[in-house]
Backbone:
């Protein structure tokens, strides 16, 4: 059996305050998460604010420190890599951010931004760089003339395409997309999703797609993982997960999602509070908000593990 | 029931070095008591400017073109000035913005901000106003409202802050609530609860609501009528079911086709090419024509609004039966 | 989007135009006028050419050693402007360097560097300069530039550090790291260009500051030494004759005023125009 392209085992990420003297508090952002992505496959990470999905993505690209766990990329230990080795591995995993005013350096021409990867890794001769940049821009559906413009002259959708071109410049095998369409209008969102699907097919790109919108995720991911307060609560093939969600949180997410169909006017799910009651020290992280009929003291003391049941894995004592 | 708010020919102009642009160009709509009208459009369509214009909160350089009227209970609020304007804002019309974090004063407690609004518009003593503020916070779903009263905005979560904003907006018992993307910055589980709150107020107090959103999903489940804004103009206006069930304008159809659906059988969304044009470069004919899959010769002229059926208005040559 | 547009700003902001015009005028005068003027060190007529009021042969009169005031003013301008520019650039460069490193590295490096800055800030700059200058009796021009520059980088470093810390968290910096950019590349190619905005403002204001500082030092007799003219030393020389021959002091005083005003005008206008926000 071939090893998956990306293998993450028991990853934990903590943020720690660092004053000049002494140690600071530790805030866990990701706790004990494991996942696998095969070549050419798209896995979606879904969660709301505080779920840890962005921290997880950044940990995989080694933008933040990992406190424990293992990350293997293309068979190599990504966490142990240093210097030249790390730089080489970095080419394989690239990240595309949510469009914002700051995803691109405002003082850098679009062409230079796209060419940065080429320069850092010396992938093409200086004379051929402009040509390669033009190719990349075309690949993401942009006019080549945009290479001479600044990001502020571009629309949100165009900037997002530039961000994708920048990532593609180093020929990665895995593309991590951190909420790439959340800030875009629906019609532009649709365009970018179509572009990502196309790139996946053409380049055989694997993709870790992070979002909070399940409907968007359905458009692009074969498998989906739902995260809550740093832990995975449910995971499985996207259609199966959406058709019969097992975990109360997943059910709540689906029920809350507004449906562009006026004939379905459902009441929002009854959740016990939307106010972050802080992360529970022990037990199930969702317990403070859970309204499952069988919720009990065990949920407060014992942390549920992921159990395989039918098509999906669920971390709940009483579901299914 | 006569319309609570009737907007006719609203036009906002902004003089720029390259020439004057009109980002809101002849917008007309109405909202009845107890009704929710959704103003839908993508970024750059002019939705937020429309809201700001109604309360005369436009940025300094922008101004209302003459001929713009907005009748609230028969009175033109665009003609109000000074004390009369101040009395209308907050008391008769209230507005809630997208990011409560930016709209709340960081150095005042949540409760004090609600209380100040109450005091500004209702004749009460400070103690009475405080009590009312506490009860309002409770109505907005904040647990232990007396405790939350003394919290500062930065101590509250996003959802809580938005509830505080709502409390401030409703404090003086307005007739009309303008909600400009009230839930876009919130998690989806929280979003549903805030929308339910707004809906509840609408049902119980007869509050008229103008909801501005780019999220058609939110609109479908809550709004009574929908007006679609494109490039400064309303291109389609209809009761919600009719708009979603039988959209008449190609833009509306394109938008609906581009929305990813969570429920029902899976279908890949169909993207619309192009994007909303910049006000400085609007075509002289139909503004959607450059992107329209059904454009034809007549589209070189700007279409007028027609009514293919009662309550359903479209700005498109195709709706006239011509093709 | 909200990214301010820098192109065309000179065209669009009148105060910057005025300020720049003044500066250019002063600079051009300093560079080209000397051709047409007598030697500032010449003392042609110590008998009856002393303290002459402004007239045809000496547009700004003569000083107590019969030296042409206009000539001294222009030559002194060269000196004063050179010091001002040199020291300002030095100070801002040092400050930017320290600020960038501290802001980017964070942690203990940052904390240590900032404690050094805090300690240095506790000593009044003028006192420090006086000490330095007084200890070294005859100090060459470049020494003065060095001393003033080396004592003036502290404020800039904090400014740059704050801005760097903010920039460091932005996505384009993270993207650069993900691409494998080295720390040097990130500092020079990504962070530095984005702090350039506040730095331009800081530099213009520093130039004004230094001009006044140098004038003050020279006025106290500690800055530029005779016979080299500088605007400050000219005022120093004119002290005994303030009442009898005021033009000898008024000329350099006005020059300082115009210079500082022009530079501050440019700096303040840039600051106001961009409201401190350059990205």
Residues:
């Amino acid at each position: 059996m071939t090893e998956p392209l990306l293998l993450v085992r028991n990853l934990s990420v903590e943020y720690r305050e660092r004053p000049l003297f002494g140690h600071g508090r530790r805030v866990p952002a990701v706790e004990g998460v494991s996942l696998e992505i095969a070549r050419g496959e798209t896995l979606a990470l879904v969660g709301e604010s505080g779920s840890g999905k962005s921290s997880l993505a950044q940990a995989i690209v080694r933008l933040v420190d990992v406190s424990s766990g293992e990350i293997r990329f293309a068979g190599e230990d990504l966490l142990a890599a240093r210097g030249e080795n790390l730089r080489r591995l970095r080419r394989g995993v690239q990240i595309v951010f949510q469009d914002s005013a700051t995803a691109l350096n405002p003082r850098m021409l679009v062409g230079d931004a796209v060419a940065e990867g080429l320069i850092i890794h010396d992938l093409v001769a200086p004379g051929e760089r402009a040509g390669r940049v033009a190719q990349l821009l075309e690949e993401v559906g942009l006019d080549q003339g945009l290479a001479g413009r600044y990001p502020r002259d571009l629309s949100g959708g165009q900037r997002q395409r530039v961000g994708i071109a920048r990532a593609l410049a180093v020929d990665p095998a895995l593309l991590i997309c951190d909420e790439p369409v959340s800030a875009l209008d629906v019609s532009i969102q649709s365009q970018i999703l179509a572009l990502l699907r196309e790139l996946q097919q053409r380049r055989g790109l694997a993709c870790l797609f992070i979002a909070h919108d399940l409907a968007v995720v359905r458009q692009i991911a074969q498998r989906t993982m739902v995260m809550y307060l740093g832990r995975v609560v449910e995971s499985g093939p996207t259609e199966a997960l959406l058709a019969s969600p097992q975990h109360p949180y997943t059910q709540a997410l689906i029920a809350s999602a507004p449906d562009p169909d006026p004939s379905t006017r459902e009441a929002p799910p009854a959740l016990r509070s939307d106010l972050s009651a802080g992360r529970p020290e022990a037990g199930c992280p969702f317990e403070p908000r859970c309204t499952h009929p069988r919720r009990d003291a065990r949920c407060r003391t014992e942390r549920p593990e992921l159990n395989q049941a039918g098509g999906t894995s669920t971390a709940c004592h009483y579901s299914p | 029931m006569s319309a609570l708010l009737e907007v006719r020919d609203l036009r906002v102009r902004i003089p720029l070095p390259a020439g004057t642009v009109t980002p809101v160009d002849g917008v007309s709509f109405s909202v009845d008591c107890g009704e929710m009208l959704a103003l839908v459009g993508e970024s750059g369509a002019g939705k937020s400017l429309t809201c700001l214009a109604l309360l005369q909160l436009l940025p300094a350089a922008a101004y209302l073109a003459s001929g713009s009227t907005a009748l609230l209970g028969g009175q033109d609020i665009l003609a109000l000035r000074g004390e009369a304007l101040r009395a209308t804002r907050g008391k008769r019309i209230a507005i809630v913005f997208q990011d409560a974090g930016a709209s709340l004063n960081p150095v005042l407690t949540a409760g004090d901000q609600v209380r100040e609004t109450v005091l500004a518009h209702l004749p009460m003593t400070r103690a009475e106003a405080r009590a009312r503020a506490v009860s309002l916070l409770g109505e907005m779903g904040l647990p232990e409202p007396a405790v939350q009263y003394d919290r500062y905005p930065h101590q509250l979560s996003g959802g809580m802050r938005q509830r505080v904003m709502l409390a401030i907006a409703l404090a003086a018992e307005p007739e009309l609530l303008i909600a400009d993307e009230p839930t876009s910055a919130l998690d989806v589980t929280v979003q549903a609860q805030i929308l339910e709150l707004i809906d509840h107020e609408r049902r119980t107090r007869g509050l008229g609501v103008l909801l501005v959103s780019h999220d058609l999903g939110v609109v479908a489940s809550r709004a009574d009528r929908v007006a679609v804004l494109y490039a400064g103009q309303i291109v389609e206006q209809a009761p919600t079911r009719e708009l979603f069930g039988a959209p008449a304008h190609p833009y509306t159809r394109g938008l609906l086709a581009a929305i990813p659906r969570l429920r029902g059988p899976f279908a890949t969304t169909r993207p619309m090419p192009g994007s909303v044009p910049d006000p400085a470069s609007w075509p002289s004919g139909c503004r959607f024509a450059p992107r329209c899959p059904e454009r034809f010769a007549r589209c070189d002229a700007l279409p007028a609004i027609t009514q293919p059926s009662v309550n359903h208005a479209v700005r498109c040559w195709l709706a006239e039966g011509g093709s | 989007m909200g990214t301010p547009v820098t192109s065309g700003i000179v065209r669009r902001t009148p105060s910057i135009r005025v300020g720049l015009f003044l500066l250019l005028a002063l600079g051009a005068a300093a560079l080209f006028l000397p051709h047409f003027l007598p030697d500032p060190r010449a003392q042609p007529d110590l008998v009856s050419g002393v303290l002459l009021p402004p007239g045809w042969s000496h547009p700004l009169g003569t000083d107590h050693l019969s030296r042409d005031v206009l000539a001294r003013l222009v030559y002194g301008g060269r000196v004063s402007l050179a010091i001002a520019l040199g020291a300002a650039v030095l100070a801002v460069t040092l400050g930017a360097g320290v600020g960038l490193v501290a802001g980017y590295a964070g942690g203990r490096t940052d904390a240590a560097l900032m404690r050094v800055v805090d300690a240095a800030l506790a000593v009044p700059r003028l006192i420090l300069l006086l000490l330095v200058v007084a200890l070294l009796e005859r100090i060459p021009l470049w020494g003065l530039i060095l001393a003033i520059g080396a004592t003036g980088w502290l404020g800039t470093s904090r400014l740059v550090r704050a801005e760097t810390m903010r920039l460091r968290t932005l996505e384009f910096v993270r993207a650069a790291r993900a691409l494998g950019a080295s720390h040097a590349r990130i500092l020079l190619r990504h962070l530095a260009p984005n702090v350039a905005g506040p730095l331009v403002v800081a530099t213009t204001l520093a130039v004004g500051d230094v001009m006044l500082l140098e004038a003050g030092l020279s006025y106290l007799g500690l800055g530029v030494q005779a016979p080299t003219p500088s605007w400050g030393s000219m005022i120093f020389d004119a002290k005994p004759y303030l009442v009898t021959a005021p033009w000898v002091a008024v000329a350099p005083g006005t020059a300082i005023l115009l210079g500082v005003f022009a530079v501050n005008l440019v700096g303040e206008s840039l600051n106001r125009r961009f409201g401190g926000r350059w990205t």
User: Anything to note?
Assistant: Residues 69-105 of chain C form the longest helix (37 residues). Chain C has a mean pLDDT of 82. Chain C has one domain: 12-33+59-274. DSSP finds eleven helices and no strands in chain C.
